[in-house]
Each structure stands twice: as C-alpha cells, then as structure tokens.
Amino acid sequence: MTSEKLFTNTDDTEIDFIAMKDGKEYYIQVSYSVEDDKAYEREFKAFEKISNNHKKILITNDEIDYSTSTITHLKLKDFLIKDSLD
User: Is residue 26's pLDDT more than 50?
Assistant: First the structure.
C-alpha cells in the first residue's frame, strides 16, 4: 500500500492522505478529535468533493462512532491493529 499527503485548495479543505492498494483508493482524514463542531465540520467537509466510489476514512481518538453512510470512522487504537482498510 502506498500513501501520500494530498492538499486540495478547494474551499480551504485538505485530504490528509490517499492510500492506494490493488487499484482501490482510500481517502483518509486524521484528527485528534471531532467532538468540537468546528473540527467535525472541517474534517467532514474535506470529503465532500470525493466520489463515493472511493473509501473515505476518518481516524480519531474519539470513543463515539462518527461513521456516516459514506464515511467510516475508526478509533486510532482500532486502526493500528487492523490488517485491512476494507
């Protein structure tokens, strides 16, 4: 799997990482927490222009699951022991 830091200047949002494996693209946002409304809006807004054909992942330390129908939220401790992002 390869990854790279990607910045998009559209609306001052950024995607933190894009990982690619076996022809699949994973768009990954990382934040300490999204409990604060501003942090939540900032991290989720970055995914708005990304096609739903790609996996969107948010990694935080939050215990609350912030997953949506198009974004998978992973707790950092769970992410670190995962074998796959699927």
Answer: yes
Phi-psi region of 37 (alpha: psi -120 to 50; beta: other; left: phi over 0): alpha
27-67 pLDDT, tens per residue? 999 999 999 999 999 999 999 999 999 999 999 999 999 99
Residues facing 30 on adjacent strands: 59
Please name every residue paired with 21 in a beta bridge, in sequence order, or none if there are none: 24
Q: For residues 57 and 14, which has the higher predicted lDDT (pLDDT)?
A: 57
Do residues 19 and 28 lie in contact, with contact meaning Cβ atoms separated by under 8 Å? yes
DSSP structural state of residue 26: E
- The answer to whether the Cα torsion of 29, 84, 64, 70 is positive or negative is positive
Place of tokens 């215990």: 63
